[in-house]
Amino acid sequence: xxxxxxxxxxxxVMSGPAAAMTEKQQLEGLESxxxxxxxxxxxxKLAGQSGGFEDWYKVAERYAAVDQNGFAYLKTWxxxxxxxxxxxxxxxxxxxxxxxxxxxxxxxxxxxxxAVDAHPDVDAYARFIQDFPGYPESLAALTRVHGLLYQKxxxxxxxxxxxxxxxxxxxxxxxxxxxxxxxxxxxxSLARALASVDPNRREDGLNRVANQLLTQAxxxxxxxxxxxxxxxRLAAERKFRLLQETPEFxxxxxxxxxxxxxxxxxxxxxxxxxxxxxxxxxxxQIEQARLALVETVTEQSKALKQQIAVQGQTLxxxxxxxxxxxxxxxxxxxxxxxxxxxxxxxxRRQLAEQQNASICDGWTCALSVAADVLPGGxxxxxxxxxxxxxxxxKQFLL
Length: 398
Hints:
0% strand; mainly alpha; disordered C terminus
């Protein structure tokens, strides 16, 4: 515990009677400075005095990181069991005990489901599924929802309500029953319409009924494009099926149009499937070409790197050889310059010794002296250098 915390506690203990603090105030003080280890025993004591779910829940929630052996967690479970209150079980299920304490969340969720299931309600089941989607009871809750909503569809007993149900819950056990019920209602309605046809104008009457059915099917098909009315696709399919399976409609314009439409749909679907297949093949070919290109570029990059490395090594060797040769030439030049300096010094001494003698156009004499002491190559260089100075020297001596 930090020294500042010990000081705070010491000050609290040493305070006079006028400043005496209750255990609750002491707990609040420790919590305010985040001294959870020091506050934990006092929190257990106060929760034990009240013994209620709310107090133990607060301890289990706030002190989860320091709850030794899950004592507060288990006491909270006991209080939830005693209260048998759905909300208490819901809150307890969200607690996370400190290991190695075994979580009782599954038991709490089961208790919540039992409470919900005791009073069947679609909204309550939906809330349970939303709150606990990962538990087995959520599947049972969904099954209950299927049953309740199917009963609602049966109470309405209309093709539209059955279609809504079947479209919303195609996985439900009752989905097939809903589709069958909608089919029976539509078929019975069509049978009454056919029975009302005037025998004296039977052909016109059959065409009229068939056209009405086709129009309704097309309307349902068009409306199904709306995301809020996708269930009407089932109605459209059912009406087209009635057109094709009702013997009285054979030879009617509506049936012919419906059959032509079905052929068009089949051709369209076949064409769509073909285009999709070609697109898949094209994407595969593009991907293969891309992979081949990547592989080629990778190999070329490797080869280029190797060539660059070899050329770099060759260039480095050439530079080193050139540098070595240059160093040798510079050494030779330095040696020649040293010898030239020695020759010049000797020439100066000899000139000094002969300064009173006839210079005999003394420039030739100086060169002769230099020739005696300088090597051939150095002599030529020295002579050339000296000749460039002769005019100035002569001018100075005059």
